[in-house]
Design goal:
Shape: flat
Strand content: 15-25%
Helix content: 40-55%
CATH topology of the domain at 226-327: Chitinase A, domain 3
Structural class: alpha+beta
Number of strands: 21
CATH class of the domain at 226-327: Alpha Beta
Radius of gyration: 39 Å
Number of helices: 23
Length: about 650
């Protein structure tokens, strides 16, 4: 093969690239023998590149100096024990717990549930159901299941009210008209069956923790959104036996039609004392949230704000409603944070947790079936008198029961878990059911705890974010004590620094007066003429801006070279009326009442900038002290590789 220039160029380029690779163990520098990896420097440099405003600091050499200074301060903070401060430890722990939650959920599942919930919020389902109660721990379900199958057929074909009257007992069998409901109003499984069942059909039997259900869907419609109304209520029962509720509500309705104030009438006469002091206003509600279909329908039927309903009667009494506001369902993005919060609190959260648990069990090579569980069941005893679980003498408490990678839990750990959570165990549960149920909780808690404790080792993204917060918090506390508060409290040092640097704290040249600006030269000429004749800004404004805005006036103290003064304006005497100045298609004239030359600022007038400059001086001196205190060594070979990678 011929040795072409192209071949050699590619060869040397490839060789250079290979030599420039950074390994996870490459140490860029050490500070008092503590290694700092090149990979950390590259990550921090790339992340902060756009935040650095000084272009000179974007050069790798300059950024390395900043990076070293940063690490020197952290070394000092650690040496002084800032990382052991109880307040620091508490705040870091709180942040870590908050951050951890983002890594212990399956985001894809959460996102799907949030979208599904929003779609259901846009709609409403009207349904009836039959429930056959059966305890969650019951395994013999044949009788209950047979009963719900029979009721499924009857719910399809029988008259609902007749069926309810015949079989509803409010104890073991429930027959209920649920009205309209939307997402988050029912248990998630029940909600899903209702939304997935077609109108006019009855679902297949399904089980929840309450028992076996069948659901009949009567209607589906778009959500009405939310309504806010005020009401006046006259209760059906009155202490005053001469008062007839229907007659009184009619009297009040006539007063309202004659122009009486609704709020005043509510305060004086409404029997709903929880709302009367708020002029009758109720909390916002949606379909299905009010225990009266008539009240709900009346509220949503009001069209315009301030509209008043005819009197209506509910089981509570007679009412007159006034519409305050109607709100449609908000856009998805505005509701998303609230939906995410509701998903976390709702029974949906179990789906998210179950999905994540399945991933973790796979990651740690575990299954839901623990071979030690059968051994435990055959050797566990419940002491009813002491309400405690115990192991038989055949098994030692220390024997390994569950192993998650490097962490082992003993039989004794699980027994302690059972006894700690004894209130969650129904005394009627069979031993096998109780142990199985509690083991699921034990496995779940143990796996999630292990994941939480090992997140920094397993997830580099999490480790980086947590470390940035850890270091940032340390640095803030150190800088607060050493530089920021130190500079403010050092009165002697501030005075000395001010006296040494007085030339840096001067009032610039300023003028006191008025500036007129217009896009039309003729208008500015008119202003100059009127100012020259002694007219005030107000009188000129009324004259020239009567029909349209021809001139804009600014009055006050202005620094030369800064808006609203034209850049080219230069005063020559203490008071003057300037010539017309044209800049950027605008015309200006300045009426100077007083010219104020450059002058010395007092220490108090300079305090803000003075403290900032003094802090910079203290920090510069402090960095020099740290460099002499901590031995810094840069690995030049690794740094050259870093530069090569960053330059690409």
């Amino acid at each position: 093969m011929k040795n072409s220039p192209t071949f050699f160029a590619i060869f040397w380029l490839s060789l250079s690239f290979l030599n420039a690779q950074i390994s996870e163990s490459d140490v860029l520098l050490t500070i008092s023998e503590e290694p700092i990896l090149a990979s950390e420097f590259i990550r921090v440099y790339n992340k902060n590149l756009n935040l650095v405003q000084d272009d000179s600091q974007k050069e790798v050499e300059s950024y390395l100096k900043l990076f070293i200074n940063y690490k020197l301060k952290l070394a000092e903070a650690t040496l002084l024990g800032y990382d052991k401060d109880p307040e620091y430890v508490k705040e870091l722990r709180s942040y870590k717990n908050q951050l951890t939650q983002n890594y212990l959920t399956d985001k894809n599942v959460t996102d799907e549930l949030v979208l599904e919930a929003y779609d259901r919020i846009l709609n409403e389902v009207k349904a009836q159901h039959v429930l056959v109660r059966i305890e969650e721990f019951e395994t013999d379900t044949l009788q209950a299941y047979s009963a719900i199958q029979a009721f499924q057929e009857r719910l399809k074909n029988d008259d609902f009210e007749s069926l309810k009257k015949e079989i509803h007992d409010g104890k073991s069998i429930f027959v209920e008209d649920l009205g309209f409901f939307t997402a988050f109003k029912m248990a998630y499984k029940f909600e899903s069956v209702a939304f997935n069942t077609k109108v006019g059909e009855v679902s297949e039997p399904f089980r929840t923790k309450f028992g076996f259900h069948v659901v009949k869907v009567l209607e589906k419609r778009k959500s009405k959104g939310q309504v806010i109304v005020a009401h006046i209520m006259i209760a059906n029962t009155q202490k005053d036996t001469t008062l007839v509720a229907k007659d009184r509500i009619q009297e009040l309705h006539r007063l309202l039609l004659q122009g009486e104030d609704f709020g005043n009438i509510a305060k004086q006469f409404s029997d709903d004392k929880s709302s009367s002091m708020r002029s009758g206003e109720l909390k916002p509600f949606k379909s299905g949230q009010i225990n009266s279909i008539l009240f709900e329908n009346t509220a949503f039927s009001l069209k315009e704000k301030e509209d008043i309903s005819e009197p209506i009667q509910t089981q509570f009494g007679w009412h007159i409603l006034k519409l305050i506001d109607k709100q449609a369902v908000k856009e998805f993005n505005s509701l998303k944070p609230d939906l995410e919060s509701q998903v976390r609190k709702d029974s949906r959260s179990q789906l998210v947790k179950s999905k994540m648990l399945a991933k973790l069990l796979s990651q740690y090579q575990l299954t839901g079936l623990n071979p030690n569980l059968a051994l435990l069941k055959s050797n566990i005893v419940y002491d009813k008198s002491n309400k405690t679980w115990k192991l038989s003498d055949q098994i030692k408490d220390s024997k390994s029961f569950l192993v998650i990678e490097k962490t082992s839990y003993s039989f004794g750990d699980f027994i302690n878990f059972l006894n700690k959570n004894y209130k969650l165990i129904n005394p009627n549960w069979a031993t096998e059911f109780a142990v199985n149920k509690q083991y699921k909780f034990f496995l779940e808690q143990s796996v999630f705890r292990y994941k939480k404790d090992n997140l920094e080792n397993e997830n580099q993204d999490f480790a980086n974010i947590l470390n940035e917060y850890r270091e940032g918090l340390l640095l803030f506390e150190l800088m607060q004590d050493k530089i920021w508060e130190g500079a403010k409290k050092d009165t002697i040092g501030l005075n000395a620094f001010y006296n040494e640097n007085k030339d840096n704290y001067l009032w610039p040249e300023r003028v006191i007066g008025s500036v007129a600006r217009s896009s039309n030269a003729k208008n500015i000429k008119k202003v100059r003429k009127l100012w020259a004749s002694g007219k005030s800004n107000q009188s000129i404004d009324e004259l020239l801006n009567k029909i349209q805005q021809n001139v804009i006036f600014s009055t006050g103290e202005f620094e030369l070279g800064l808006s609203p003064l034209p850049e080219s304006f230069t005063p020559r005497v203490k008071s003057q009326l300037s010539k017309i100045i044209k800049e950027n298609n605008s015309f200006y004239i300045v009426n100077v009442k007083e010219f104020m030359p450059q002058s010395q600022k007092s220490l108090e007038d300079s305090r803000g900038q003075l403290i900032s400059d003094y802090q910079t001086k203290l920090e510069t001196q402090w960095i020099l002290e740290l460099k002499s205190k901590f031995n810094v060594k840069v690995n030049e070979d690794v740094f050259q590789k870093v530069k090569s990678i960053i330059s690409k």
